Fold:
Amino acid sequence: MAAIFQGVGAAATLSSSPSNSFDSNNSFLSPPRSFSVGKGASFSVIRSGGILNLNSKGRRAQQLISNAVATKADSAAVSSSSKPGHELLLFEALQEGLEEEMDRDLRVCVMGEDVGHYGGSYKVTKGLAKKFGDLRVLDTPIAENSFTGMGIGAAMTGLRPVVEGMNMGFLLLAFNQISNNCGMLHYTSGGQFTIPIVIRGPGGVGRQLGAEHSQRLESYFQSIPGIQMVACSTPYNAKGLMKAAIRSENPVILFEHVLLYNLKERIPDEDYICNLEEAEMVRPGEHVTILTYSRMRYHVMQAAKTLVNKGYDPEVIDIRSLKPFDLYTIGNSVKKTHRVLIVEECMRTGGIGASLTAAITENFNDYLDAPIMCLSSQDVPTPYAGTLEEVTVVQPAQIVTAVEQLCR
Amino acid sequence: MALSYLRSSSSRSANLLKPLSSGLSLRSPISTDTTPITVETSVPFTSHRCDAPSRSVETNPKELLTFFRDMALMRRMEIAADSLYKAKLIRGFCHLYDGQEAFAVGMEAAITKKDCIITAYRDHCTFMGRGGTLLEVFAELMGRQAGCSKGKGGSMHFYKKDSNFYGGHGIVGAQVPLGCGLAFAQKYSKDETVTFAMYGDGAANQGQLFEALNISALWDLPAILVCENNHYGMGTAEWRAAKSPAYYKRGDYVPGLKVDGMDALAVKQACKFAKEHALKSGPIILEMDTYRYHGHSMSDPGSTYRTRDEISGVRQERDPIERIRKLILSHDLASEKELKDIEKEVRKEVDDAITRAKESPMPEPSKLFTNVYAKGLGVESFGADRKEVRATLP
Structure:
């Protein structure tokens, strides 16, 4: 625990001149102190010592890595002291997390379509190519299968690539690489290779993007053994999860949502990470546990306002970790409220909700007063027409009705 | 037996030197001799968009005897694996490499252990070339703990991280993007090493190959793509699968070289050339014209799509071990008897390794759950009956 706060100053230095090229001989000279980042498009450049494992900063960074997936207490402590933080949008938070990690560890590189000179189709990688150079922020041709494979091959040697799918749906082309090589190599090599890769991209139903660009891949990837899946929903957890995913030795798939990129929130200035296997308690309550993730969190919170007016007290948990589930937090909640409603954007058939229902039923059946209700998207390709698209996903009104039904 | 000490390739003179190490050991005393010998490759190289290397290869007695010994070892290992499979000690898939050994030894002679190799499922001999031991091979084939992947990988998943051997992959063609990723990492770390990404004539029609080749050429990666063309993609002959079977030309803008893959010295020359090229100017494709005597795998007799005459014809005319044997004998580097002794020794080594591998136990049941994730998750994993079988993933 102490190591996390030790590291608070470690990654943060202020430098006035942005470095335009990747220079591995940068030495870390100035003492660490906290930094503040301006709003909007301009950011202070963070320069850090590049040589791994050879200086005290590197050793502290190593300590950080070993604790990276450990404790929960820190996020509570940090968020309560974060009043003097800085405000930014979710995509900027992702970018900040990525940039800090790239500064901190020279092995982190980014590959994807239009992530470099263009700045990323959702601006998550904006400015990184200019700062880190073409070898660390790589513009790939449109060849998902092979560049995901290349990321995995690079990860086998110890690099830590962050592979971006411009839209999660495009990663279906790389499914073979993700399933067979990414997930399984650690096992089939008898533990010789770890694959510390992060695969990320926006998914989910957007504003009339059409069927092929509104896919939710979490249900397809969830059975692959050996990978972890997380879904971010706020700028705070986006940055935290991005950093934790990069530091993790396991392959992590980070699901972002197209419609959440412009959410604004105040986040702490200090270095922090979010535990990859932990769920987030959004709103404690007594009557019913509502489990959700990604964009549906906001529909649930909207419904929660109506529910509170009607006299219900829902407990809302953002599960964040899609694989593995945080059954500890979820279980405690079920033991308290005895009613569960799952609200997700995945399809009904074989979705995250289906697995979660099975997991809760097996583990906590005795604590349930009513059958688990699961609200998911319809099992249809997402239509283009706006009215139809609205009906495809779960709306707050349906959530309210479901809770009323559950609590009867 | 009298030993000859050779100065140049041309003379077959009986230049007898007193044998210093007397007739004590059966191992050839010339295994440390490094006087250069120049040999011509069987056929000239054909090139695409580059200048072919010269046909004259420099070698020495030590190297030739090492080639002979290593190839004999690999050949014996594969034949022993064949018997083990028929005895049902090896199950599932078993893809044998006999006939193609020249590539494994020739490539190793041209590179270091710092260069990376990645290949498909016909990986037993490549693994041996990288420094794997017979015990690891047989134990892994039989699914025992002493195997290189602790028994959890099997025939298609041999890996050796410390000598940069990246496997061992079951899905046809998927290893080529991985190989280009290895080359990328080498370039990123400025290692001055190269990656050999091997694939077969069947895999040469995979789209991801061209994708990876495009990216490698674009980013100037030190990737060498090697097509081990044994002319059959499982049961389909190359002329039935590929419109253009000139695989070395398939790179279009990437230079290519066609090599006789049954000639270990030609392979060595080509790999050396390729390494120099890759470090300077980016990717290159090598096509190895080779042949496999066994079928695609143990479940394939190998004779339904080709004639037995063809197989025995290649064996008579182009066998890699015979070629080296003839070379050694013609240069008087060792006698027939010594070579036969080497083969006997190799056979004994293989038998010993099999005995030891059979003694190695099967993995413990708890090992089912290890290495799913790298350390530190502590999540639960379930069996078919979730209430009965439940374990925490370490």
Remarks:
- DSSP finds 15 helices and 14 strands in chain A.
- Residues 36 and 275 of chain A are 24 Å apart (CA to CA).
- The mean pLDDT of chain A is 82.
